[in-house]
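HUMAN: Can I see a protein plus its fold?

ASSISTANT:
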Amino acid sequence: MSSTMADVERGPETGRKTLPGPILLLGAPGAGKGTQAKELVKLWGIPQISTGDLLRAHVAQGTALGKAAKDVIARGILVPDSVVNEMVAGRLKEPDTARGYILDGFPRTLPQATWLDSRLAGQGEALPVIAVSLHVDYNQLLRRITGRRNCPVCQRIYNVYSNPPRQEGFCDVEGAALVQRADDTEEVFAERMRAYTAQTAPVVEHYRAHGRFAEVDGDGTIAAIAAGIVAAVGRLRK
């Protein structure tokens, strides 16, 4: 076990183990949030809770919440907080969340954040949500997104800046011509960043105001970034 992980597990002064509890992992498009969520799931043995996955599962199972969400989506509007909150509430009752969980895509808005805080506070001993944001320079994010290319045959992913193929434009394994996703352009990325910043800012400020927010350098190796997140969680839980 690494020293940072040990710090989190040891706890403050009592020597009792500190649970990771609920962690909201934030990151702009291309920041590596998905990769780090998987690392934390492996480190702590806690689940990743994705509202996208919950929505798809409820729709596929034909639950009452799934039918309500499907009707809303069919009309081209956002699923209301009340429906999403109820899905999350149901998921948090499952036993695998006892030690904590990684929140993915929720809370996305300030009302969702305040709802979750109230729900957890009502559980007495439940730990509050802490938020950790991966910070990566805008230009670095832009290179990660616009430089992505993938092989249409084996789905291998390259980056023309950081992980180029041996022969420009062609997959090392299949020899197929690499393709760029239609939304991996500078224009689309700029719009996604504007939307992310506008939507996330109130949530960030909410957790910052309550002393439950930390920013971690997201430009490094997977292991180094994960260690930074673990250290941040340790500080916030103390």
Remarks:
- The CA atoms of residues 112 and 201 lie 14 Å apart.
- Confidence is low (pLDDT under 50) at residues 1-16.
- The longest strand covers residues 21-27.
- The radius of gyration is 20 Å.
